[in-house]
Each structure stands twice: as structure tokens, then as C-alpha cells.
Task: inverse folding
């Protein structure tokens, strides 16, 4: 291979082989260079429409409920929901943290099992033929079928029952994406490593896993959203009173829908925060990937 000033990065983006381009970019950003200001304008232009649509939708919701005199038990106004959220913030924070722990536990269990099964599936054909049908079958069963069974196995008040439901939900996307990343490697790179008599473990460590990281983080982001959804929905079938799903069903049954909506806001905030944490970790772990580089680099 020829050695020049520029080279091809693992993600296909051309970078400075000396590494000075990354340093220069960091300095430009810190000093507020024209390039960084352009990037800020581009970022603002990307997110501003979503913010405008959100604000307009909330304002329209508030106006229509007031103008059409819609009853509170059908659809409360955003201002009423916001006031209820502030008044019950401490209690909502407590039950939100309880459900968040269930979501985090299920996320950890499901993603860990998904990665382990993916490693076995990508390594051995027999494991692929044996495990993949079971994974597809588990993904095809709706959550409402699992919830009563697992509640009976582990106990309706046991958080482990909810964690296992979440684990079943996040397992399949984690496994499938990891398998794709481990198997869809550059044939030329694979042939080169084998020509140097690299062992399967060395190929896994230096080629397959780095190639799989972007796929895995995509799965982590999907699982982050699914985990909170799974935890809340699983609580609809019973559970501790300090849980979001139980709180929502109880408040809705007593026609206190403003409190139910306030709890839904908590679930949304937790889910979005979880997603953003995964996104931040992705930028730290794989900053070299093309999807994380500014356009034009």
C-alpha cells in the first residue's frame, strides 16, 4: 500500500494521515472559526423546523381544546398537564425512576444476550441455523402475550418480570444488527488478515468488532426507545404502585387524565434522555465513523 499524506479511513472518509486535520478542526471550533459558525447555522437549520412544528402543535392543541370546549377526561389542555406535572413533580420523579430501573435492567439483559448470540451465530453455521429461528419466533410474539406469563413466573410485583419482558423486546434488534456488522466485512480486508495467518480471534478483535460497532450502536439506540416502551406497557398488566404503567392505568380509571398525561411526559423524557446518552457514547466510542463526521469531510 502506498503511503501518502491522505488515506482512507475505516468508514470510507478521506482524512489527513498526519492527524493534523482533526487538530485543526478542533481549534477552529474552539476559536469560533468561520467553518464552525457555518456548522452551527447548518445545525440550527436542521433542528429549527422540528422545534417550530412542536411549538405550533402544542399551541394548536391548547387553542382547539379551549375553543371546542373538549372535556378534560377526553383531552386535557397542555397548560393543565404542565401545571399537574409541576405540582406532582416529586411523586412523578419517584415512579419514573422505578420504571427507569426496570427499563435499564431489561436493556442490559437483552442487549448482552443479543450480542452473545450474535457472536455465536456469526462464528458457527450450526449456531446460526439453531438460534436464529428461535430469535425470530420470540420477536414475533406480541408483548401482551409475554406479560401475564412472566408476571406469573416471577411475581406480579417483582421488577425482574418487567426486565425480562424488556429483554425479550430488545434482544432481536440487538442480535440482528450485531450479526450484520460481524458478517458484512470488507472481503479484501478479511483476505488480507488471513494471508498474514491471523487467528479467528484476531480477526474478530481487529476487523469484525470495529466493523460491527456502528451496527451495534444503531441497535442500542433502537433498544433505548423500546426498553422504556416495554417497561411501561408491561406494567399495564399489574405491578408495584410506584410504577409509571400502574400509575397511568389507575389515574385513567379514575378519570384523572391530566395526571396520566403528566406520567406519559415522564416516560417520554426518560426515553429521549436514554437515547441521547447512547448517542453521546456513540460519538465518544466511534468518532471515526462517517455518519458522525460533519458533511464535506
Result:
Amino acid at each position: 500500500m502506498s503511503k501518502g499524506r491522505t488515506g482512507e479511513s475505516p468508514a470510507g472518509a478521506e482524512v489527513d494521515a498526519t492527524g493534523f486535520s482533526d487538530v485543526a478542526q478542533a481549534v477552529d471550533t474552539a476559536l469560533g472559526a468561520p467553518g464552525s459558525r457555518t456548522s452551527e447555522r447548518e445545525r440550527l437549520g436542521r433542528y429549527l423546523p422540528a422545534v417550530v412544528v412542536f411549538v405550533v402543535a402544542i399551541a394548536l392543541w391548547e387553542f382547539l381544546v379551549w375553543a371546542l370546549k373538549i372535556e378534560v377526561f377526553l383531552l386535557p389542555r397542555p397548560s393543565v398537564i404542565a401545571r399537574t406535572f409541576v405540582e406532582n413533580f416529586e411523586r412523578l420523579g419517584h415512579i419514573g425512576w422505578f420504571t427507569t430501573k426496570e427499563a435499564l435492567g431489561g436493556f442490559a439483559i437483552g442487549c448482552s444476550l443479543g450480542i452473545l448470540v450474535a457472536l455465536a451465530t456469526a462464528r458457527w453455521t450450526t449456531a446460526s441455523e439453531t438460534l436464529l429461528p428461535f430469535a425470530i419466533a420470540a420477536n414475533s410474539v406480541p408483548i401482551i402475550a409475554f406479560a401475564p406469563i412472566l408476571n406469573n413466573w416471577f411475581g406480579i410485583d417483582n421488577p425482574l418480570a418487567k426486565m425480562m419482558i424488556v429483554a425479550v423486546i430488545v434482544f432481536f434488534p440487538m442480535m440482528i444488527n450485531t450479526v450484520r456488522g460481524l458478517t458484512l466485512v470488507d472481503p479484501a480486508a478479511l483476505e488480507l488478515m488471513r494471508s498474514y495467518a491471523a487467528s479467528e480471534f484476531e480477526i474478530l478483535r481487529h476487523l469484525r468488532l470495529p466493523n460491527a460497532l456502528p451496527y451495534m450502536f444503531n441497535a442500542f439506540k433502537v433498544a433505548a426507545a423500546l426498553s422504556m416502551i416495554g417497561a411501561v406497557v408491561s406494567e399495564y398488566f399489574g405491578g408495584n404502585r410506584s410504577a409509571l404503567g400502574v400509575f397511568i392505568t389507575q389515574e385513567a380509571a379514575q378519570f384523572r387524565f391530566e395526571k396520566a398525561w403528566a406520567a406519559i411526559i415522564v416516560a417520554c423524557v426518560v426515553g429521549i434522555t436514554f437515547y441521547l446518552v447512547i448517542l453521546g457514547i456513540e460519538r465518544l466510542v466511534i468518532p471515526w465513523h462517517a455518519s458522525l463526521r460533519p458533511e464535506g469531510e
